[in-house]
Specification:
The protein has about 500 residues and is α+β, with helices and mostly antiparallel strands. Helices cover about 40% and strands about 20% of the residues. The chain contains 17 helices and 23 strands. The strands form 7 sheets. Strands 17-18-16-15-21-22-23 form a 7-stranded mixed beta sheet, with helices on both faces.
């Protein structure tokens, strides 16, 4: 048996899988999110730990599995969050999360001290409010007395690793989202640490996602009913583990997630750093020796979230099936209506908080069904923006996209995405996402499989395949050109409109 743990923003999830990859049990316990000030987002790490204990206990009890038969534990979770501990490993303040937006000024400080070009070339990313280093700078500038007591810095899942094992450790994939990590050499950047006056000893030891980082301590065993000595594997941040969970660990296979936000995750055999920092370049959960040791990632902020907004606003009486069925009768291109899915600003390809959602091309002829289909198409065009950037880095040979997330359940949306992207789109049998990927990494780390590729081939199976329809590919090519031209023309208008709203 293998145990996967996912410390997400909403809850701690535990799954057990057997050595055939079958899910034996799953349990999730939730915890609150705190917003003590506008734009702030925090959680109490002790809430993660209590929920983890509850989920582990429940999944073991429900499955009837003897904890002694658990070969290894894999960890994943929300990325970028800052957990700071004192000299006796006590939490000094609530964790500052990935979606916290208080660090605009700290990002400027980071760029001033490190240099933008150097930051991107070293870490693969520009300064971003969600990343870890700006949070630490904020604490230094706004809570100086507390900052003087910092002795350890951890990310969310790695706090749970510490509670289970007593070890301060992190994997390369999650470390890549801190703005402190040299992704090419897969180690903490001593130059950046020196520039920011961060003591190297504060940072956890770095491991590959398939390496054993430690074992369950006697204290951890007492708290969870796990067996002391059970190996704990590196794992990965949620996006990297999600990619493992759907088998995006080989050349030419890309993961696409249609959740509230939308993600394209493209594995690479070497770092492909975008000089402008528009695409995220990070380490993957598998080591370079296993092939695809890095990845490129683009994120659009409102994917399935756009459809949910549309349904809740204009057709709250409909379920999604009733909403989408008639949209399938509307011809590709929605007879000239284009939807821009920038409802919450945008990240890729336009890092613009002022970007706004729009319907363009409306006439009296258009109906609710036209608008519904245009939302699906607009999100697909947004994914094409990201995929085009990925291909521009040299990754032209993309022959399959593995789709997951709530939006993947719609055959209509899958077909639209396939036609817009002009790549085969497949669904897979695994539905536990990042947690499943963490369990597979645990299997590789403990020798159940020899490599991540072998683990995925043994457990992740394709269910349905959607092929591009040539006539629709041509139609969407034309409409996409119009879509792509709209944001540059509307950028200043979006910003002007935003300044008029208090």
């Amino acid at each position: 048996m293998l145990l996967g743990l996912d410390i997400s923003t909403t809850g701690a999830k535990a799954i057990l899988i057997n050595q055939d990859g079958d899910v034996i049990g799953s349990s999730t316990h939730t915890y609150p999110l705190s917003t003590p000030k506008p734009l702030w987002s925090e959680q109490d790490p002790e809430d993660w730990w209590q929920a983890t204990q509850d989920s582990i206990g429940e999944v073991i009890d429900a499955s009837g599995v003897d904890p002694k038969n658990i070969l290894g534990i894999g960890l994943t979770g929300q990325m970028h969050g800052l957990v700071i501990l004192d000299i006796v490993d006590q939490v000094l303040r609530p964790a500052i999360l990935w979606n916290d937006q208080r660090t605009d000024a700290a990002c400027e400080t980071l760029v001033e001290k490190v240099g933008l070009k150097n930051l991107i070339q070293t870490t693969g990313n520009p300064a971003m409010t969600g990343f870890t280093a700006p949070k630490l700078i904020w604490v230094q500038e706004n809570e100086p007395e507390l900052f003087q007591r910092v002795k350890h810095i951890l990310l969310p899942k790695d706090y749970i690793r510490h509670k289970l094992s007593g070890v301060h450790a992190i994997d390369c994939a999650d470390a890549s989202g801190t703005s402190l990590f040299d992704i090419t050499h897969r180690e903490w950047s001593q130059d950046i640490l020196k520039s920011l006056e961060i003591h190297p000893d504060w940072l956890p030891t770095v491991f590959e996602g398939t390496q054993i980082t430690g074992t369950v301590s006697q204290q951890g065993a007492t708290a969870t009913n796990l067996t002391a000595g059970t190996p704990i594997i590196g794992g990965g941040g949620d996006q990297a583990a999600q990619a493992v969970g759907v088998g995006a660990v080989e050349p030419g296979i890309v993961a696409l997630t249609v959740g509230t936000s939308g993600v394209i995750f493209a594995p690479t055999s070497e770092p492909h750093i975008d000089p402008q920092g528009v695409l995220h370049a990070m380490c993957h959960s598998l080591p370079p020796s296993q092939g695809q040791g890095w990845h490129l990632m683009g994120v659009m902020l409102s994917a399935a979230g756009s459809l949910r907004w549309f349904r809740d606003t204009f057709a709250p009486q409909h379920d999604y099936t009733k909403l989408l069925e008639p949209a399938a009768q509307v011809p590709p291109g929605s007879e000239g209506v284009i939807f821009l899915p920038y409802l919450t600003g945008e990240r890729t390809p336009y890092p613009d908080p002022f970007a706004r959602g729009s319907f363009i091309g409306l006439t009296i002829r258009h109906t609710m069904d036209h608008l519904t289909r245009s939302v699906l198409e607009g999100v697909a065009y947004g994914f094409r923006d990201i995929l085009s950037l990925v291909k521009q880095t040299g990754l032209e040979d993309i022959h399959q996209i593995r789709i997951s997330g709530g939006g993947s359940q719609s055959p209509l949306w899958r077909q639209i995405l396939t036609d817009v992207l002009n790549v085969e789109m497949v669904t897979v049998n695994t539905t536990e996402g990042a947690c499943y990927g963490a369990a597979l990494l645990a299997g590789v780390g403990t020798g159940v499989w020899n490599s991540t590729k072998e683990a995925c081939r043994a457990t992740v199976k394709t269910l349905s395949a959607t092929q591009p329809q040539k006539e629709n590919v041509s139609i969407y090519d034309s409409y996409y050109q119009d879509y792509h031209a709209l944001y540059p023309q509307l950028k200043e208008t979006f910003k002007s409109l935003s300044t008029k709203i208090e």
